[in-house]
Amino acid sequence: MYIIGIAGGTGSGKTTVVKKIMEALPAHKVALIPQDSYYNDTSHLTMEERRKINFDHPDAFDWKLLIRQVEQLRQGIAIEQPTYSFLVSNRQVETVHIEPCEFIIIEGIMALWNKELRDIMDLKIYVDAPSDERLIRVIQRDTVERGRTTQMVVDRYLDVLKPMHDEFIEPTKRFADLIMPGGGTNVKAITLIRNYILHQVQLTSQHSPQ
Hints:
- The chain is α/β, with parallel strands linked by helices.
- Helices cover 41% and strands 19% of the residues.
C-alpha cells in the first residue's frame, strides 16, 4: 500500500490536485480519505455552540479515529469512514465503506500536522497558493455549499482562517516532500506527480504475487 498525504490552506486547490491524481489511477486501486470527514463528533453540543467551533485548529479533529482507520486499511481491514455536514456542524449518521487498496490519499488542511499520521505516509505534498486566490475560492465555495454570506466568509477569514493558517498550516510546508506553487492550476507539477505515482503503480504490479 502506498499512502499519499496532500495538505495546504483552505482554498489552495487541494481538491483539484486530488481529482487529477485520482483520474490517473485505476478506480479500484485508489481510495480517498478526506480529513474533513474526521472533525470531532459534536452531538453533545447545541447548534449555537457548534457554530463557535474553530474548525481550523488541530483540536477540531478526531486524530485517534483518523490514524486508527488508516492503520486498519494498511492491515487489510475495511473501514466505515465517517461523514460530516458543515450545515449542521456535526457528523452524519451515514458512513462511507472503504476497502483496502493499493493507493490511499489523505487530503486536508492539516494532513501534515500530526507526526504520527505523517510517519505513515510514503509521499507528502503541500499545495500552495497566494492568500488572495485562496480567499476568493473560499468565498465561492462557502456561499454556495455552506450557506454563508460573503461578509460572513470575509469576517471568518480575517478572524480565524488567516491566523490559523499562519500558525498551524503554513509551517507544515517543511514536512512536505513536494511543494506545489500555484495550487491546482500548476499543470506541470500535477503531471509530474501523476507520472511519479503511475511509476509506483508499475513497481507495485511488478512486485505483486502473480
